[in-house]
Structure formats: structure tokens, C-alpha cells
Amino acid sequence: MKAMILAAGFGTRLFPLTIDRTKPAIPFLGKPLVGYVAEYVAQFGIKDIVVNLHHQPESVIDALGDGSAFGVHIDYTRETPHILGTAGALDNAREYLADDTFLIANGKIITDIDISAALETHRASGAVATMVLKPNAKRERFTIVDTEGGFVTGFGDDATPVTEAELRDIEHDIVTPLMFTGIHIMEPRVFDYIPRGVYSDIVPTFYNPALLKGEKIAAHVTDANWFELSTIPRYLDISLAMMKAGDVHFGKNCVMVGAASLKDSVIWDDVTIGDGATLYRTIVADGVTIEPGEHFENAAIVRADMVRSCSEIPEKP
Known about the structure:
It is a single chain. With about 325 residues, this protein is an alpha/beta fold. It is built from nine helices and 21 strands.
């Protein structure tokens, strides 16, 4: 069984942390985020992986190499000149995947979902594909996936967010929606629905037509841990939640000059922090120097020269 890890996205909502790399290549507690995904997949005996590339592709290749550091073998596909969408990414990788059941995983997640259990669901169902779903208890802005009797029946709008207080007030009156985790298991027959040369997402290209045709799409629902690091607040909050000790993570070759006050912060590699500096809920990217006495709070900091040379600063959706 092979896997595909999706790593072609732009990382717009993580800018400026993605100014010199794509989202899956950003460091997460000492490893590239996509490296965690490769190791996660390898835990279940899946050692042959294809990774798609588009935006800043060399950053992913530098992070993963041939995969040996993460216990896998990696091949790459490139999407040029335009990003292809998930369906297009599959089409572009069909020579790697079209001979057996395969797994797709998003390259920006941290999870302990049991792939073996999902695979059992898939095989027992006889479905052409299985979507791994999770209850969206906080009703975050993820697309609602409708199910009945263990099978996907369709896709709704995004869930409507509510506060913790609202959740307590209405928890007995609402049904918790299901959201997609970015993990699917598919049979090669999905390629019957995916045209060659398509630029499209997987839902309109495969899932919706397959459901209309009466195909079975299994739903594997799990309460396992699952985190999606798509925004700066998510990245920081999940980093802090997963630190084994302390409330500050330091990368390699960091230097503290004198005394500084640091709390709830993530420091990448080759960072210098001056005497009397104060950082609170701050992410400091590679090579940054925090001058003596500087104070930052709720910030993401990259080198100024990188911002000055950036040809286009993306608008966050």
C-alpha cells in the first residue's frame, strides 16, 4: 500500500512564516511538519510515499530528502505552471498509485488517528473510498460532511463557530457536525472519475459524481487527536499544547545574550535574543536577531530583508 502526502499549497494564512517555504515545510518542534506526517504514515507500515510539489518546492525536498530520515521512501511529483487541486494532484501521480489501495494525507496535520482501524472500515465496507471524519465539537469553519449508516451522503456548508459559553448553553440542543480530517483511503477505481489533465478539487471531481452514481463512500469516524496547523494562532497554540516541558521551544544554534523574558513562544533556528528582550506568544523564524530591550507580543517575526525582497505579500482569506 502506498500513500500520497499533499504538500503543494501556498501557506497564505501562515505568512510571513511561509515567506521562504511552503506550509508543510515549516518546522514544528524540531522537525518539518511534513516530516511528522511521513513518520505517522510509516507507523502503519506504509513506506512508499509520493509527495506533490508546487509552491516553493525545494523547501519540501530540503525538508524530506529521499525520506530515509523518516523511515520511508519518497518520490515527488511537480505541478507546473499551476497548482492542480487534489484531483489534479492524484491525476499527476496516478502512475504511482493506480495499482492498489492507497492513502491520501494532508501535509499540514498532526494526529494519532489509527490508520489500521480506518483501513478495516474501508475493506469491510466495500467502498470505492473512505473518508476519515471527526466530530467538530467546537463547530470550527470546516465543511460539514453528511453521513448515514456509516456512509457519506453529501457535503454541507461550513460549520458555524460558537463560543465555549454558547456551547455550554446549547449543547443539549445541537447535533455535532462531522468534519473531514484530510485523510482518505481510496481504490484505484477512483481514477475512472478523474480526467487526465484536470485542475480541480476532489469533491466536485470525484466524491459528488461518485455519490450521484450510487457509489459507496465509507465514513470512518474517530475521536482521536487531530490538529490542523493552517493559521499562525493554530500553529502557536498546538505547539504550546504539545511541548513536553516548559513553555518556550528553541531550535538549533540559538543564542541568548544576557537576560531575557520569554513566555509561550516558539523560536526557530539560528536566532539571537538580546539582553532585556521580552517575548510573549511570539514565533521567531530562522536567523532573526531580537535586539536588546525589544518587546514583542502575539507576533510572528521573520528577517526584515526577506520581507523587503518579497515580491508579493499575500492577502489572507
